[in-house]
Amino acid sequence: MQLREQINQDLKEAMKAKDAKKRDALRLLTSAFKQIEVDERRELSDEDVIKIIQNQVKRREEAAKQYKDADRLDLMQIELDEIACYMPYLPAQLSDEELKAALQNIISQTGATSLKDMGKIMGAASKELAGKADGKRINECVKALLQ
Questions:
Q1: In this structure, what CATH number is given to the domain that contains residue 74?
Q2: What is the pLDDT of residue 1?
Q3: Does residue 124 contact residue 106 with C-beta atoms inside 8 Å?
């Protein structure tokens, strides 16, 4: 079953179960899918769906941080609940050790020796580790490995 179909099925189940939080979160997600399909006039692949979910999670994390800074814990909790609804649809994230090992492999393949080679490493890592690790985590780990 495709990821998009699974999300639609879960949305239907949330409606039947009268789970308002999950229903609303999944509706926001499906509207983001439809927006991209309409704007770009194409069908979304599972990779596209994962990128959209990651983008939505990142937005929710930023909003939750801003709500926390503004001492609006009620709104922060709504954002965190939506993130929790989205996480099961994302691929498992690499642990720090797995990420470090994968990046060391990429560094040896590209022949990088210093921070000047960061662009080559980030390009290869972004392709190879897409969906498995956040770009910010990859960046921080690469800097630590090259210093």
A1: 1.10.1510.10
A2: 57
A3: yes
CB distance 53 to 89 below 8 Å = yes
Q: What is the pTM of this model?
A: 0.79
Q: Looking at the structure, tell me whether residues 104 and 35 fall in a common domain.
A: no
4, pLDDT greater than 80: yes
Same domain, 74 and 120: no
Token pair of 100 as six digits: 């470090």
Predicted confidence at residue 113, as pLDDT, reads 81
70 and 141 share one domain? no
SS (H, E, C) 84-134: HHHHHHCCCCCCHHHHHHHHHHHHHHHCCCCHHHHHHHHHHHHHHCCCCCC
- pLDDT of residue 20 exceeding 90, the answer is yes
- Give the helix, strand, coil percentages of the chain, each rounded to 5: 80, 0, 20
CA distance 76 to 54: 18
Own/partner contacts of 70-74, CB < 8 Å, gap of 24 or more, are none
* pLDDT at residue 83, as a whole number: 95
